[in-house]
Amino acid sequence: MFESRLRLNFLSLILLGCVSPSSFFNLNTDDNSYVACPPHQTQALTEFMNEFDSSHCNLSDPFNGVWCDNSTGAITMLQLSACLSGTLKPNSSLFRLHHLRHLNLNQNNFISSSLPSEFGNLNRLEVLTLSNNRFVGQVPSSFNNLSLLSILNLSQNELTGSFPPIRNLVKLSVLDLSNNHFSGTLNSNSSLFKLHHLRHLDLGSNNFSSSIPYEFGNLNKLEVLSLLFNDFFGKVPPTISNLTSLKELYLHHNQLTGSFPLVQNLTMLSVIDINHNLFSGTIPSSLFTMPSLSRLDMRVNNLTAGSIEVYNSPTPSRLEYLYLGHNNFEGKVIGPISTFINLKVLELSYLNTSYPVDLSLFSSLKSLLRLDLSGNIIYPASLDTNSKIPTNLEMLLLQGCGINEFPNILKNLERIKGKIPEWLWNLPRLTSVIVTNNSITGFGGPVDVLVNSSVKILAMGKNCFEGAIPILPVSINIFDATGNRFTGSIPLSLCNYRSLTQLMLGYNNLSGPIPQCLSNFTFVNLRENSLEGSIPDAFYTGASLQTLDVGHNRLTGKLPRSLQNCSSLEFLVADHNRIKDKFPFWLKALPNLQVLILSSNKLYGSISPPNQGPLGFPELRIFEISDNKFTGSLPPMYFVNWKAASLMMNEDGAVVVGYGPGVLLGLVIAHLTATYKPEWLIKIIGPNKRRNR
């Protein structure tokens, strides 16, 4: 049965309530395949659209619309992405479109709706995509009625429960349940292993906790298998070698142990990613000569292999991306790797091998774009070799290698000590230079040596740079010069860099005023300098600033009221200055503020909210106002809407330290004992486990 597509752009959809459905769908076109949809179909679609706020619809999205069967006129395909906001109710008019075969409602905002069981009534569906919609609760058992489905995508929601009941969906070729909260075990009798036509299976970023069942080996049509970011444990079953059609395998961020199984018969594999597990033993040498393997990631495991062996092969390794860092290699691993001539990215940081790394070995890797040798011992003699670095190199990481002079391997020039040589900035594809935690003293060449470079990320913190802040490349996005010896004022020219978003100049010897353009950045760290004057009152509405740290300077004046315009601000730190102002109750207008540190200033006046109501700041995680001249009391009622933490009162009536989930907050009357320590915040709040592959 043929179908014709009736294109409905969003402008048309918004006007659905303003025109008669019959006149709208009866398009005036010379294409005879277009026909009018039956009135009951158009009416159901109109009513469905009217159930939601569609004011955020993209008026020009070419992928949204409705398709009607050119024989019956019935709506068979509906695609409305990133458009609707509201609650999807069980009595929605959507469930009257019984002829639907393809339904795509991804990236809408269904405001914590449960998945209605009425989806099971759309039993002609072949494709159902409901990703990124904030659906909650469990998958209803009625989904088992959708026996014609070949594609089911429920990813990036808030769904819970065990593996959903989909035993009857035997035609499924694509199943994506990633980025939800599914939990429990995967047993050998799970309905999953009845789906023998699966080609793409993604269970990543959930909370499944079990060993990996042997029955995965029965899904022998799988091309993509992703179990990343779960709590799978134990050994990978040898039956994984039965998946002879497998092209991509993602097992990273689990608790898998033992040796990685032999998979040399999986000749179609192009990606193996098992990083952040507990694998041990040797790396199977057959991995390096697999005919299709281009990406191998074994970072952060307990691999304790001796020397890597590469058997003679009629064709060179196809590996382009190799990640072996953060393991415990006991033998020589670099030499054999240097024969992988197709490598583009090579990550060998913190190998914990007792053998120094010979930099000269990498000169044969002509396609290499990124090389990470951080945390390794560099073979001293290789610093003076005449070998050349691959000219296509875009990123070189040597953090924590203890290098106090620039190695001549980077260029066949006279011996250069203490400065980054001028030629480096002429590499045509160089985008990132990260040389933190070394002893570099400056830049070779003229003062504008960086200007014409293509570098976007320049991280040179914790070195020995002196003098004025350098003139940066026009392309710069991130500039980190923290912990050096820079002097003078912050250049006003920094305000002219349109792409610069992160500026880190903390822990230097800078003086003078702060430039007026802080609104241009998302992250600003000027901590522990000798800056003077006031914080500029020049934050425009809609500024993207998220972090501002100006602590430990000599700043005076008042806190700028225009900070209220920075609705994205999460961290505001201005401790140990000379700011003279009243408590900034007006900052409670910032919906995302998590850290507010104003200790050791000249702040004064009542700390009690003017209206005697709650203090505000519901998202605060660290709050420090000690060593000021505040007056008044802080009864617990002021903190009733602090959902980020819990407080309690001691027998003296003082509010004392309270702990909430993922929160550190210390507060005592007139003196706050919590100290701003970023490592606490990182450890306690922690990174978000749910990530996309």
From TrEMBL:
Coiled-coil stretches: none
Keyword Aminoacyl-tRNA synthetase carried by entry: no
UniProt cross-references to Pfam families, sorted A to Z: LRR_1, LRR_14, LRR_8
Keyword annotations from UniProtKB, A to Z: Cell membrane, Glycoprotein, Leucine-rich repeat, Membrane, Receptor, Repeat, Signal, Transmembrane, Transmembrane helix
Bilayer disposition of the protein: Single-pass type I membrane protein
Keyword Oxidoreductase among record annotations: no
Residue ranges constituting the Disease resistance R13L4/SHOC-2-like LRR domain according to the UniProt record: 162-302
Subcellular location: Cell membrane
First and last residue of the signal peptide: 1-24
GO cellular component: plasma membrane
Xref: PANTHER family: DNA DAMAGE-REPAIR/TOLERATION PROTEIN DRT100, L DOMAIN-LIKE PROTEIN
Family (UniProt): Belongs to the RLP family.
Protein name per Swiss-Prot or TrEMBL: Disease resistance R13L4/SHOC-2-like LRR domain-containing protein
Species the sequence originates in: Brassica carinata (Ethiopian mustard)
